[in-house]
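User: Let's play a game. I give you a shape written as tokens, and you guess the letters that built it. Ready? Here's round one.
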């Protein structure tokens, strides 16, 4: 098969890494795979993996972008593509209107947000990342919905990676505990948890030798740098280090005593045999362990709290984990085994290959696509003109692509409900 994979931009983010890893995995199974995307730091990974790359044009002020849709259709037809795999809402909409409706080339979309957005296309196959979103999507749409959990390259992400150079490069002493968070420094979805781990590290640093390494870049960086500077000056030494983005963050994971974060970043930490704490919104935090793993496997490595979480209890659990080396080793072994057995790229690529073959042999009828296209356009227009305020929970879905493509306007998103709302 000839497959065109379309992530919005090759930025360092969980969905983008998943898209590249799975494109490589499917290519290794004998298929011809092309990556169509805006350039970004991950382009080096695309080239290192030997994937063919076609640069998408810069979008205009409104998404879906007419310029991108024209280019996408031209590539799909000109390259004789058998199937397009779009990653995220904007690529999904652009591929839906430019490829599925106008050419009949089969389209599958991956939607890795934590809550399903109801006004996206209703026909055609969809891939989601958790059983929780699977249920929401199946209730909201007519098309096929399947789960493929975010995969991890367990050969590249391995406990044998050397993290000593990372520690030396950031003047981290041999007796200091290291907390690592690898994250897009986005204003939405990420900022709250980033600020919370900075505050927790500052509190812990008054009692034990601990350092926090924040690996990533994005629009929230100036605010986080200011907060880190205030913490470091207040304690008279460097406690919080912002490293900037790393195209290859493996040395940072390898240097960690504990990994914190959400989503695929946590899964990569688990692959490095590290104990990991999931941070979500509204004060949510939870240790990944045999006692909590069922929740994360169902809902994803994320959560929404009630806004009343205690900073003291968070710090106490983090300190207990840092000071208990046997417990860290035990959790690390559990973590590595979990990722290898359930989240390997090889297993996910085989599942995706079977899905591609089935989708290619059962294209969506043109009439159904046309009707769906009209309905989707109407829902988008109504939402854009409704003027409804977006509550805080809307950050679940709107933050990812706006952070990755800040120069472009975004398609409108509805007010989303929280999971604990009826």
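Assistant: Ready! My guess for every position:
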């Amino acid at each position: 098969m000839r497959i065109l994979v379309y992530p919005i931009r090759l930025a360092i983010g969980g969905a983008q890494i998943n898209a590249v890893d799975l494109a490589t995995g499917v290519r290794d199974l004998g298929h011809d795979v092309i990556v169509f995307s805006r350039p970004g730091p991950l382009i080096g990974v695309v080239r290192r993996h030997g994937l063919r790359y076609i640069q998408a044009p810069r979008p205009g002020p409104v998404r879906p972008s007419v310029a991108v849709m024209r280019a996408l259709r031209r590539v799909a037809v000109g390259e004789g593509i058998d199937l397009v795999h779009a990653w995220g809402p904007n690529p999904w909409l652009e591929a839906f209107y430019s490829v599925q409706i106008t050419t009949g080339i089969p389209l599958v979309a991956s939607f890795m947000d934590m809550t399903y957005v109801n006004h996206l296309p209703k026909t055609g196959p969809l891939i989601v990342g958790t059983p929780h979103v699977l249920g929401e999507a199946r209730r909201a749409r007519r098309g096929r919905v399947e789960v493929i959990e975010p995969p991890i390259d367990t050969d590249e992400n391995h406990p044998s990676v050397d993290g000593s150079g990372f520690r030396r490069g950031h003047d981290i002493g041999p007796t200091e505990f290291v907390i690592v968070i690898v994250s897009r420094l986005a204003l939405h979805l990420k900022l709250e948890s980033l600020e919370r781990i900075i505050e927790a590290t500052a509190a812990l640093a008054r009692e034990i030798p601990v350092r926090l390494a924040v690996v990533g870049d994005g629009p929230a960086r100036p605010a986080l740098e200011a907060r880190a500077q205030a913490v470091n000056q207040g304690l008279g030494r460097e406690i919080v280090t912002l490293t900037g983005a790393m195209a290859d963050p493996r040395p940072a994971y390898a240097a960690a005593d504990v990994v914190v974060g959400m989503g695929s970043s946590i899964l990569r930490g688990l692959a490095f045999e590290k104990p990991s704490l999931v941070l979500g919104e509204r004060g949510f935090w939870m240790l990944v362990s045999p006692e909590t793993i069922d929740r994360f496997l169902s809902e994803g490595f994320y959560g929404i709290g009630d806004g009343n979480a205690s900073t003291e209890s968070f710090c106490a659990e983090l300190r207990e984990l840092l000071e208990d080396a046997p417990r860290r080793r035990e959790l690390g072994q559990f973590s590595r085994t979990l990722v290898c057995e359930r989240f390997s790229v090889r297993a996910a690529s085989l599942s995706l290959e079977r899905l591609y073959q089935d989708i290619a042999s059962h294209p969506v009828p043109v009439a159904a696509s046309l009707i769906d296209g009209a309905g989707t356009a109407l829902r988008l227009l109504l939402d854009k003109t409704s003027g409804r305020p977006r509550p805080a929970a809307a950050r679940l879905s709107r933050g990812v692509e706006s952070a990755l493509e800040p120069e472009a306007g975004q398609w409108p998103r509805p007010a989303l409900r929280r999971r604990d709302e009826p």
